[in-house]
Design a protein that fits this description.
Layout lengths: L3 H8 L1 H9 L17 H12 L4 H5 L3 H14 L3 H8 L3 H6 L1
Amino acid sequence: MIDTAFALSMIGLPEFEKFHSAENPDECLENHARLRLTDGEVKTIMLEMCKCDNASKFMDLNASERKYYIRKLKEAGASIRQIGRLTGVGRGIAERA
């Protein structure tokens, strides 16, 4: 049970109504759908960016290039596991890139 008289004695009814009717930009439990790229879309992005159509060609790149392209794939919306699966790098490397 809530003691409404006590709460209203602290701020008053008009202030209470004003407080609860004010716009609030907070986002707590809002559901923001996040779209993931398909493996085919990620492969297309890889081909356009680094001219690699498979994991072995991607692994032939030097480490700094791989890191750069992994970051770009993450920015494009590919998941860590997806990056690891399609590029041949370990999940930990994909996370740290």
